[in-house]
Specification:
about 250 residues; alpha/beta; 60s Ribosomal Protein L30, Chain: A; Alpha/beta knot; 6-stranded parallel beta sheet; 4-stranded mixed beta sheet
């Protein structure tokens, strides 16, 4: 069966996959066996759909319906590959601007970032297939509909995306407090991809190391950090300010 944001039931999810429904993530109950479940797992692997094994209590929270050990999140949008995203922006005049989100998990923060991205002319957002926030109804609402306007690409590994972007002539700037550089000392006038880290852990060390530059936001109060969506807005609007020549 299906509601606006979820499909529940093993057979219903199988049918949805075979009908090319845009499925963002599937939650499967740990320990559930059977031929039908094996068929679903095979389809999930074949179609490279993110799968998470969870206790039955998690599924019970996701839906009050008879889930049979399987619940799928439906995505309201279609995702791009990284190649498709770069091809889409290749003919654009002027420097490009991308966002990479490293394991951002809160759907409302995701929505707020997408909204700011649309307002600042971001050409695309890149997220990892596993561990990233899903595009849910809350994401759509928080983004004020911007999720339908900003292309979002999914990649297997964000570090590989960093290398690919660098090879395409795009500088990588990591937003992190683990640096002495201020965001106001970085040039955003050339094509740039800004990395924002997870709410709790920040940017992964290996991705931070692969970045071309890193920068932090000056904090003058006693609280040691900003909400990730607010920090993202500061970086994006500094890029806008520089490119407008103000």
């Amino acid at each position: 069966m299906q509601d606006q944001t979820k499909i529940y039931g093993i057979r219903a999810i199988i049918e949805a996959i075979n009908s090319n429904e845009e499925i963002d993530k599937v939650f499967l109950q740990k320990g559930v066996k059977g031929d039908l479940m094996q068929e679903l797992e095979r389809l999930l692997r074949t179609n490279d759909i993110t799968t998470v094994y969870v206790p039955v209590e998690k599924l019970n929270r996701l839906t009050k319906n008879n889930h049979q050990g399987a619940v799928a999140n439906i995505s309201p949008i279609s995702f791009y590959s990284l190649d498709e995203l770069l091809e889409k922006t290749s003919e654009k005049e002027g420097p490009s601007l991308f966002l990479l989100l490293d394991q951002l998990s809160d759907v409302r923060n995701f929505g707020a970032i997408i909204r700011t991205a649309e307002c600042t002319g971001v050409d695309g957002i890149i997220i990892q297939k596993k561990g990233a926030a899903s595009v849910t109804s809350d994401t759509v609402k928080t983004s004020a509909g911007a999720v339908f306007k900003v292309p979002i690409a999914k990649v297997d590994h964000l570090k590989d995306a960093v290398f690919y972007l660098q090879a395409s002539g795009i500088q990588i700037v990591a937003a992190t407090e683990k640096t002495d550089n201020s965001v106001y000392d970085i040039s955003f006038k050339d094509s740039t991809a800004i990395i924002m880290g997870a709410e709790d852990k920040g940017i992964s060390p290996s991705i931070l190391k692969a970045s071309d530059q890193s920068a932090k936001i000056p904090l003058l109060g006693e609280i040691g950090s900003l909400n990730v969506s607010v920090a993202c807005a500061v970086f994006l609007y500094e890029a806008v300010r520089q490119r407008m020549g103000t």
